[in-house]
User: Fold this.
Amino acid sequence: MKPGSDKSLRKIFNKIGVPEESAFNPDPFQIKAIEAIMKYDCLVTAPTGSGKTWIAEQVAQKTIQRQGKVWYATPLKALTNSIHTQFSKLFGKENVGILTGDIKENPDAAIVIGTTEILRNQLYDAMYTGENLTCDLIILDEAHFLGDEQRGVVWEEIMIYLPVRIPLLLLSATIGNPFQIAKWLESIRGKRCQVIENYHRPVPLFTLFMHPSGTLFPLMEHSKSDQKKRLHKKVFKFTNAKNRPLISHSGKLPPFGDILQILDRYHLLPAIFFLKSRADCDQAIKLCNSSLLSKNPKKKAALYQKINELVSGNPHLAKHKQRSFLEQTATASHHSGHLPAWKVVVETLMAEGLLDAMFATSTVAAGVNFPARSVVVLNSDRFNGVEFMGLTPSEFQQMSGRAGRRGMDNIGFAIVLPGKFMDLNYVAKIINSPPLDIESQIAINFSMVLNLLLSHTPDQIKLLLEKSFASNLILAGKKKGRKAREKFGAGLEFLWADFLDHMDFLIDEKFVTKQGTLTDDGIWASKLRIDAPLLVAQGIRKNLLPLQDPPLLACIIGAFVNEKEFTDDPLYSQALPKRLKEAFLEARKELKPFAVKLLENGFDAPNLFIQPSLLIYMWAHDEPWEDIVSSSDFAEGDLARLILRTGDNLRQIAKLEETFPDIAKTAKEAMGLILKEPIITF
Assistant:
């Protein structure tokens, strides 16, 4: 590959540079949003990087000046940590707390930053006790997560349960139906919700295509007939060529070292490369070289110094296997397979402009704020956990939204590479497509049913479900409500039937009375806001969970939260600790009839495997982290997530001290054994 560029790009490349320093002047939409939230609820929808967090800062400032309290909720722990750091610098550590499940610091502060699940749980508790949530403003960041298939139900619950007296500020990426969401909120909260829309990017975005030869072309051009954007004629010709060249051979990644040289030649670095898999990200950094960094000894020295600073005092990070690539090539891999602490190292280096490139999976686009001058996209699809699906317009916007650093770039670039799974015609289509409408993702689960029955009758719950966004979508009309009617029924009858199915099962299992009130078992089981609440509750009922053995309790709970499928082979190993094997087999045997009953009634029940339990057993008994990782089928990040989720579940069990003091005490001790470095960085 050799650097080259179409002559039409000269004017575009001339715009590259750092804007002149000037006093910050808020955009009109930012001012309008601040004015609106003083009177009404407010939904702000704007492109990534346009300054939505600044609105949150100003509104939080005004609230605490009036001696009020702010709850700032985000969908992801990484984002929560980032906002907490940012707000602590702005408002002072003493005024900012954090609640993520893993971390609980200064929970009574004037500003609390936490995950949406924690906020939802606090609303459950407030409804049960009849106490008011001690809060004067709720900020829901990344509010387009309302449409997330896995997490959307939590957002919807918050909006339904939130007391009307508390103003609600929603910050969202660009969405297709903001006024519909606002109308729904107005219908359930009885107060105005003002929509503030902004489509202007503070840093303009230009899309490029890199030919396998190394030549850069504009990706799109305006059609003369209708002024819509279409593939540039030269890119279109490449796309339709019979024997078009490949940027890489089948099964291999592109020559990223050469690509970085080309991007550097045209001042397009730093860049975030979005790749298909974690393995690809880890392999990509091995294809880079030290040539760019060697030309900049000052940057190399600053990078080396910052890495030393970030890993000092943490032996796990200090000897990380990818550290040498960081130091030698100024490139990094970033994905969920890495330790949370290592991802923080990479994010910090990227945010401070010390990396030339970061290779990441698409999930990073929605999670963390570290823009670059360019983003590079190799595939027009992504893996959603089940199958590969074409990128949605919103997903492509999330990725391209990382291009162009406000205050650091005059222009940002989204660069498309012709990878094996790149459909350029499809990319052109989604670039031209408006953002997708958000659909309701409300769903019934046992934890929801138990917690609602704590404070509501079934009839009252039916009215709550009728307040759902799903109901509003159905009422919107034939076209807009089609998906909602198919999913929930024309009158939410499918949703209500699902609730009744869950309640009937709870009645059969004596967690709920026939009158629809909670039994004593139902009351304490409602506190188990965990992965498999009924199975764990049944384990407590039958005395299957270790009462006096903290490591063993952590092991058994780890089996409930595990997401991977294994075989039973380790059960036949002579090296397996006897008490672990006995406790696991007894729990699995005794819970099997209950699990089968769940499955027969159409509910989920996890398969219990001993391998994750064994890994947690080793970790709780202080075996070296590196040895555990090397002996398992887990990546570091996956193992960390297993342990953190186990810790979250133990934390909920620890809340049962009034009913089950022994197991609550053991759960607290178990948390201390597993939540330690490098999982938790102090």
